[in-house]
Amino acid sequence: MEKFNFLLERPYINPYMLTALLLFRLICFYISGILLAIYYPTDLFTTLLLLLTLGVLYWMAALHASVTTWLNPIGLLLIFLVGYGNLLLQTAQQKKATQWMEVHQAVEGYTVYIEKVYPPLSCKGLITHIKDHSGWHNSRGFIQLYFSKKYDYKPKKGDKLLIRGKPDRILLPDRIQLANDDSDFYHPSTHRHILKQIDRDFNLLTTKVQNSNWRAMITQWCSERLHKQLQDDQTIALISALLWGAKETLDPGLQKAYADTGTIHVLAISGLHVGMLYMLLKAIFKYICRYVGFFILPDFCTLLLLWLYSWLCHFAPPILRATIMITMARIGLLIGRGSNRYNGLFASAFVLLLWDPSLLFNCAFQLSYLATIGILYLQPPIHRLITLEHYCLRKIWTPTTLSIAAQVSTLPLILYYFKQFPLYFIIANWLVVPAIFSILMLSLVFLVSSHCPIINTLLGFILEKLIFAINTLVYWLEKWPMGTLSFCFIHKRTVCLLYIMLLSIWLFFQNKNLIYFIITSLCTTLYSVYHIKTIIATQKKCKIICYNNHQLSFTLKDGIRSLRYDEPPSNSSILRHYTGGIIATWYKKIILSLHTIPADWHGWRGTKLDVDYLLIDESLLYNMAIILKVWRVKNLVIYTKEPHPLRYYPKIKKLGILFIWLNPGSKKALTWSKNL
Question: How far apart, in whole angstroms, are the C-alpha atoms of residue 187 and residue 181?
Fold first, then answer.
């Protein structure tokens, strides 16, 4: 075994640099294993066998080595296989969880725990038990539930339901939507169930287990306090979003305004909220314990409440990242070993990905860690660019550099996920972040002082006025000209190119080496080539864009020209108006929009005609028998007047046609190649 010794021997390195370097290498190899499992998956049993063999080999080498260092080539390969096998194992478990309907074919009923609510009347549920002819069985699977608005029940996170009947598989339109969602990870929901009436289709269970959920009890008590003392619904919604991340009742228009001004991060529970809470708790406990000789008591109480807050927020990745970093930093200082600012970051990332490797593809996880890396690495040199003597200017310049560093480090991801970039984010953050900090602090004091009527009333009045003022300010900033820049040609490859370009530009200014300038120029050329290629590919495709503005509206595009549905008949031979609507022939596809049934269709005796895309109003769903007697429909686009038209769904499900619901104010693009 002496031949393994060279794998475990290392020269002396500064311990802080060594720890940061080892953690960085560890997380890189672990993430590489996850990525390889995504694009090149293999047999899980073979992977686990190889992992076991390599673990035994590593243990034998470490046992006979004179110096024990765990991140050697064999150790790094072991970490790589752990990441690879961990994702394969989780994917296998998720696929197994979706097969619960295949195991129990004759389902008579099941119980569901609501995990996430999509306002106003839909939710994602976790199957806990299934009943068939032989009795109840434990199970685990996900389902999408839809509720009728005619009845009083509204889904709430944490509710447990007893549902009668058998759910339905998600039809092809939902699968197409999932495929176009540009997500690589396996989507767990494959079934849906529409529930119309409580006490007939389902019952709400009130069990002791549900009542003993301390997290739900705390959030419910806080929500009751807010509803009792505050009158404005948006004030309550904003406070709930800031405290425990409940954004279900927050106005979508307000969320869009925050996104367009670059301040949407204040609405999502993140490290910013943990930092604010840490500052407040540290000051409070330092004042309370100033006469106590036990010097670690303030830090202990502060960290304990931070972890309780993380638990209250369901251990969201950004919250957990900030909590782990603060905990490691404080423990390092208390034991006299100091703290490396990158140690907590890499350690928290490894712990989270070890627990759930699919978090690597989570938008919040990616933005949180990249923003933190930008703040740790980019903010200090940016801050040193300008030296300010005035105290107030320094206080403004410091948060400005933090905002710039975070935006630069997350710029490619922002363009990829949101297809736009806010230009006034610095001004907006100057005004919004201090106000949000004040709102968060006042909200906590408001809840603590809920049994003091005078103080509570005064704080409630201040909160309502402050939130109204900040929301009005955000709406005003959103209306500024050129508030956002749109970027449409941003894909996964271009995100990687943009990050290489940003890193090369930064290293060029740091080291003044020509090689970084060459790399930047090469990445710019590749991005331009990819952009041109995308434009050419777009011109080779044609599409119909259906948009619901309370009428059958659509636009035909072929990459160069576009044609609206309301074009005059004399200007285009493609669009032809008739009694019932508009018929168009667009690159070998027939599009038919129908708002009324022509009289001659009722007595139709001819052969069926083919139509590729049929666009109809929801009121014509009652006449589908007449329509299908005339037309052989391949794709059906239904323009609805309600977000959840549940009463029509059973009728459409029986048709066996690929259909798409188009809600008011939404649009859908359907594309095909010109060469078809």
Answer: 10
Query: What residues form DSSP beta bridges with 420?
Result: 486
Mark 428-466 as b/e (b = at least 16 C-beta within 10 Å).
bbeebbebbbebbebbbebbeebeeeeebeebbeebbeb
**Average pLDDT over every residue of 333-355:** 79
Per mean pLDDT, which range of 57-66, 225-234, 549-558 is the poorest? Answer: 57-66
pLDDT band at residue 3 under the 50/70/90 scheme: very low
How far lies 130's CA from each of 122, 126, 135, 161, 204, in Å? 21, 11, 8, 12, 16
DSSP string, 393-427: HHHHHHHHHHHHHHHHHHHHHHHHHHSEEES-HHH
Q: Cβ neighbours of residue 277 under 8 Å, at least 6 residues apart? A: 305, 306, 309, 440, 444
Distance, in Å, from the CA atom of 601 to the CA atom of 594, rounded to the nearest integer, reads 12
Task: Tell me the backbone φ, ψ of residue 566, rounded to 5 degrees.
Answer: -95, 20
User: How far apart are alpha carbons 477 and 263 in whole angstroms?
Assistant: 11
The strand pairing partners of 477, in sequence order, are none
CA distance 652 to 433: 48
**Interacting residues of 312 by C-beta distance below 8 A, sequence separation 6+:** 215, 218, 219, 244
How is residue 110 written in tokens?
A: 């099941």
Query: What's residue 673's pLDDT?
Result: 82
- The percent of residues in the chain predicted with pLDDT above 70, rounded, is 83
Residue range 144-190, pLDDT digits in tens: 888 876 666 778 777 888 888 888 765 433 333 333 333 334 444 56
Give residue 325's pLDDT: 84
